[in-house]
Amino acid sequence: MTRDDSSPTADTLDHRQGPSDIATSFHNVPQAATHDPTALLDRLQTPIWIFDIEQERMHYANAAAVRLWGAETPQALYARDFSSTMSEATRRRLADYLPRLARGETIDEHWSFYPGGQAISLHCRCSRYLTNKGRTGMLVEGLESDISLDASSLRALEAVRHTPMMVSVFDGQGRQLVRNPAALAARRGQTSFAACFSDRNAAEGLLQRLEGEPRTSLEAIMRVDDRERWHHVDLCRATDPKTGLPMIVMGELDITPRKTLETAQLVSKRQLEVVIEGLDVGLLLEDERRRVIVANQAFCDLFGIEAPPEQLVGMDCREAAESTKAHFMEPEGFVARIEELIVARQKQTRDLLAMANGRFLERAYTPLFVADQYHGHLWVYRDITRQRHQEADWARKASTDPLTGLANRRSFDDAARRVARSVKDDDSQAALLMIDIDRFKVINDTLGHAEGDKGLRLLADTLRHHLRQSDLPCRTGGEEFMVIMPGMSAEEAWAVAWRLLRQIAEATIEAETLPFHFTVSIGATCFLPGDASVETVTRRADAAMYQAKREGRNRVAVRW
Questions:
Q1: Catalytic pick from 56, 141, 252, 479?
Q2: pLDDT for res 462
């Protein structure tokens, strides 16, 4: 930035104003008609300069001030771009000066200068200088300081001035003595120790605590102008080097963003806890070392853990797996599968676990990665016992005849295909019986369908009680039944068929009107390796059954 001397109306503090203007500005220095006031000022050993804080420009400096600022000429100093070299701490400090100067306050501070690389500490007295346009400038008189500071002290002083930490010094009664620029920018005007705190009572308590403790730290809500902010506050007792009396040094750092983030994280954590506790699935979150991070009550309930979930935090999950493996049908497999999933680090959504008490659990595994770094995993356990029972019930109903409880046609077809494939591939043997109730239509028409159903159920019960466990009796439609007999020869099947025939004929059905009997005709055959399909076998059995009916019913016929 350079001075603009070309405009006659510029709002400046031009050093080329009339001599009487300059002289009058400096405390009304009396002038003689035969003397040039600026020449008089240049003869002074006291540095004097005028600085425009708002424009960050130097508008006048006497010869001593030009030397102090390390400039070759006054014009070089006026052309200097102060804005490019001024620190934010200095800028804040000068901004704080403006309202104080406007109120007529005289500001005394110690400033350090470095002409020719040599440190000079001056007592600078700053007062208001009113421009010809009514703006407030700063008139500075650099007086010789009565304080001699070594290099370390000067550097420490500069560090305090430029640090973003707010540093304030109070006397033993909490009255403010001095503040650094950061503290000045945060709190305008004079303030007491207690006024810095949102809770004044707490502030008084801190003063009392410092009487017995040399230092303390805390996080507190502090007043900054008319706002409240979270600050980290360091307090210590010290001795005033000027008076020898006790004083308090307070350092403050604004931690409001961190506290806001912590509060948001706490809220999010609590919200997540509520969600987790509301789930009916068991959740277990482990870190990369297999230590528990989070567990919920549903997880504890599934595994019979009496301790509340929060007591599991930090627990070693390897030890926990060993202690709970007895709950499962395959204990060692349970532990081995956990290790397998963790090593693979691949998401697994449905792992079926059969428990020793007959229950079933479904487990999901999800590894947790952040920026490609592994940070543990999440287990989700769900009790699917009811679902498994429902599925088994649905499967049973889908494969079972509802009237007799025997396998239905669908089950017969599936089983027959398996047996036929076994006979062809393994050179095994199997027989097939086709059973049909004789004159069943007459029974239904004469006694009614309810009595006919009794006959069907009687036949089903007879088959269940007189066949092997490996045999499969099926109701394949109406009054037609099939029996698959794996591992049975033709002769054995023929003997079983006659035994069934006699059992059925001797049975009595207690009808509502009168007891009745019925007979069946049975066709017997074997599964042969050369059969093209199951239909080939069933056609032979069907032909044998009709042969038995043609030969008088209530008999067995065989076809190979």
A1: 479
A2: 96
